[in-house]
Write a structure and sequence with these properties.
8-stranded mixed sheet, about 15% strand, 11 helices, about 290 residues, alpha/beta
């Protein structure tokens, strides 16, 4: 295995089932033989990240389309039993094993020479923690970290890793983009996959008091929830500026036909097809940006 883009970082935003649209980027990049040397993601973007590294386009698609029909994926019953409205342990850990619903090709993940980073939010002190291949020497350690990165507050129980509890990395200082991790790795050019249209602006948090009571023992979580819209909108503006400067190529959905909690397979399949159509239109410009047009 080898990579053919070494000067640009690939970054996947999260967004729950909106990744039905953006998982098309994984599919299209792999079909085009575009193998980028550094890839990072947060929340649903962490799933896109690891699927890209296994070069498993089918898993990338199924994860955010047909898999939504799995009755074990979660519901109000699993939420009341403390497993989450989305049954995170099943989704991110159980399904990755051989013979399960979404078997993960761990040997290919390890063999891929690309570097990766998936990010999560540490509840005790509000630190943003990124994990790479050195932190994921086996399948359980990888899947648990993908789960931690994707753990939406209240809707899923926190994930404990090495004695610390973690939530969705979108609570971190960038609002859900591994741009800081890519820069820390030395990158100055970025291919970034967003999951909201260009005109989107994240609104202020509603029910601040409710979250304050729910997370009264971890005030860093409350502060992060309140400040997330500011962080998210600020990072998007920064990305648009990088785009204007020619240092970033952005995939921005022309439309977003599904919400982060969508479970209707037909709607998710349609969203994926829309994403594929958009990627195919934009791919020539991506190849030029990545230096692959020769």
């Amino acid at each position: 295995m080898s990579t053919n883009v070494t000067d640009t970082a690939l970054i996947f935003e999260g967004g729950g089932m909106r990744a039905s649209y953006t998982s098309a980027v994984v599919v299209a990049l792999l079909a085009a033989g575009i193998h980028i040397d550094w890839v990072g993601g947060i929340s649903a973007g962490a799933s896109n990240t690891v699927n890209y590294l296994t070069r498993d386009a089918e898993r990338a698609r199924i994860s955010f389309v047909e898999f939504s029909a799995d009755p074990r994926m979660g519901n109000l019953g699993t939420w009341l039993r403390g497993k989450g409205l989305f049954n995170a342990e099943y989704i991110y850990e159980t399904t990755g094993y051989p013979g399960q619903a979404l078997p993960f090709d761990f040997p290919t993940y390890i063999a891929n020479p690309a570097t990766m980073a998936i990010g999560s939010f540490r509840m005790s002190d509000g630190a943003m923690v990124y994990w790479g291949k050195d932190d994921t020497p086996d399948l359980p350690s990888l899947m648990k970290r993908v789960r931690a990165s994707s753990t939406m507050p209240v809707l899923m129980p926190p994930v404990t890793i090495d004695g610390a509890d973690y939530l969705d990395g979108a609570l971190g200082p960038t609002g859900g983009f591994a741009l800081d991790a890519a820069r820390a790795a030395g990158y100055e050019r970025f291919l970034v996959v967003l999951t909201q249209p260009r005109t989107y602006v994240k609104p202020r948090l509603k029910n601040e008091r409710l979250f304050g009571r729910r997370f009264r023992r971890t005030p860093a979580v409350v502060d992060a929830l309140i400040r997330r819209p500011e962080h998210y909108n600020s990072t998007r503006e920064e990305l648009f500026e990088l785009e204007r400067e020619g240092r970033a190529m952005l995939f921005v959905p022309e439309t977003m036909p599904v919400t982060n909690g969508e479970r209707n397979v037909a709607k998710l399949r349609a969203a994926h097809e829309q994403g594929l159509a958009q990627v195919r239109r934009e791919l020539p410009a991506w190849r030029e940006f990545l230096g692959l047009d020769g």
